[in-house]
Design brief:
Largest sheet: 5 strands, parallel
Number of helices: 8
Order of helices and strands: EHEHHEHEHEHHH
Number of domains: 1
Strand order of the largest sheet: 3-2-1-4-5
Strand content: 5-15%
Radius of gyration: 16 Å
CATH class: Alpha Beta
């Protein structure tokens, strides 16, 4: 069985890693969609799709890497067209992992099973919170996997975020 998990991963953090592990415990193959892949770099979307892909790949182990494939999912102007666009990008899937009510509604109309993802420490594990900690010299390093931490430190993420 194949599943789909879409996220912005701005940046990829421990909650996202937990979501991938949860999804993989329910499917054989997981399609990971990098949402908003066509958006320009801005304060709320500071990392490109390729940067986010690198964060994910540097943060997962080989057994996970063998079971996932990453796809770029652009934003489009309406939700129906968005899921139709996903159909043209991602191979067939039997299950979608989402906590978004609109996504649940749209896919349930298509008879695709939607499974909620358990949140891990949602207050501190949010991209917005982590980006704020990075900008303000807060303690963020323990909120992201080692690969993401190294990527953010080695690519000057703090300066990027401060300049946005």
């Amino acid at each position: 069985m194949n599943g789909l998990l879409i996220g912005r991963f701005q940046p990829f953090h421990l909650g996202h890693l937990e979501a991938l592990q949860f999804a993989l415990s329910n499917v054989d193959k997981l399609w990971v969609g990098l949402g908003s892949s066509n958006r320009p770099v801005e304060k709320n979307n500071p990392f490109t799709a390729e940067q986010r892909k690198e964060m994910i790949l540097s943060s997962i182990d080989n057994s996970m890497n063998e079971k996932i494939t990453i796809y770029l999912i652009p934003d489009v102007d309406n939700h129906i067209r968005w899921i139709e666009k996903i159909d043209t990008i991602v191979p067939k899937f039997d299950l979608i992992f989402s906590n978004d009510n609109l996504t649940k509604h749209l896919y349930s109309k298509r008879n695709v099973k939607v499974l909620a993802i358990p949140f891990l420490n949602r207050e501190s594990l949010s991209g917005t919170h982590i980006r704020e900690l990075i900008i303000n010299d807060g303690r963020w390093e323990d909120l992201v996997p080692d690969g993401t931490r190294s990527y953010l430190q080695n690519t000057g993420a703090k300066e990027l975020l401060k300049n946005l």
